Amino acid sequence: MSRRSSPFDDLAELFDKLTSQLETTARSWETEIDDRSRFDLSIGGSATSLDLTDENDEFVVTVDVPGYEKDDLEIRLAGETLSISGERERTEERGLREETYIRQERELQSFSRQIRLPEPVETEDVYATVNNGILTIRLPKVEVVGESHAIDIE
């Protein structure tokens, strides 16, 4: 007597294929996340974008900070971790009271980003500028002295 096939056999095979494909995709996502997370230490999403470039003798960090003034931003360097944060408050328009607004969306905004630098930098020579809503931080690398010297054996 021949065994009759069940429609559930086909569903089980389909689920096995889907599970295999999802596992493969998840592994590729983990690799991408691991590569990014080596440098980005920020927690949660951020409202600002950041670029880190290696320009041979220095690292350059460029951050979009539209609407932030120099005094709204704070930059700290602790070892190889660069922390950038900003906070700005809504400014009251002169002569406008809250009940005169038809729509009011501009409020307190803040962001915080932390990135790990790939190599040590000269902390005394780091400088930053803000121009047209773009924060640029230049971090000169520690110079490696290529000279060799003799070591005495005692």
Chart the SSEs and their pairings.
Blueprint: H1 7-37, E1 50-54, E2 58-64, E3 73-78, E4 81-88, E5 109-116, E6 127-131, E7 134-140
Antiparallel strand pairs: 1-2, 2-7, 3-4, 4-5, 6-7
Organism: Natrarchaeobius chitinivorans
InterPro entries: A-crystallin/Hsp20_dom (IPR002068), HSP20-like_chaperone (IPR008978), Small_HSP (IPR031107)
Domain SHSP: 41-154
What does this structure look like?
By secondary structure, the chain is α+β, with helices and mostly antiparallel strands. It is built from 1 helix and 7 strands. Strand 1 and strand 2 (58-64) form a beta hairpin. It has one helix at residues 7-37; strands spanning 50-54, 58-64, 73-78, 81-88, 109-116, 127-131, 134-140. Strands 1-2-7-6 form a 4-stranded antiparallel β-sheet, with no helix packed on it.
Helix-residue proportion: 10-25%
CATH top level assignment of the largest domain: Mainly Beta
**Poorly predicted ranges (pLDDT <50, ≥5 residues)?**
31-35
Output mean pLDDT.
78
Structural class: alpha+beta
User: From the alpha-carbon coordinates, what is the Rg to the nearest angstrom?
Assistant: 27 Å
Secondary structure: number of strands: 7
Biggest β-sheet: count, sense, barrel?
4 strands, antiparallel
Pfam families: HSP20 (PF00011)
Family: Belongs to the small heat shock protein (HSP20) family.
Protein name: Hsp20/alpha crystallin family protein
